[in-house]
Amino acid sequence: MRLLFNILWFIFGGWISGTLWLLAGVILAITVVGLPWTPAAFRLAGFSYWPFGKVIVERDTGAVSVLLNILWLLLAGWWLALHHLALAAALAVTIIGIPFAWQHVKLAMLSLIPVGKGVAEV
Question: DSSP string of 58-94?
């Protein structure tokens, strides 16, 4: 079932989201200032391609992660999370969209504060 949901997710928009996160990671890597957020963008790309069967885990909650997350939250995280929450609300209206809405909620949590988080298989 997980494979079917991942395939449907990928076909109906996961490839767009994942590719945009990959592009964002490359752009962040090119700029010296964005380099600390590059691994988080690549993690989000992988999670955006195939979110079913994965959970978000805490990896590092040090002072540097907190500072990077505060900057990310102020500059980009809030509107990225808001975007995913709006998509989740639209999908949750239908019974069939509820599993996909839950994945958007997980993406919203991860895109809000991505540094120090990891993605693990269930």
Answer: E---SHHHHHHHHHHIIIIIHHHHHHHHHHHHHHHTS
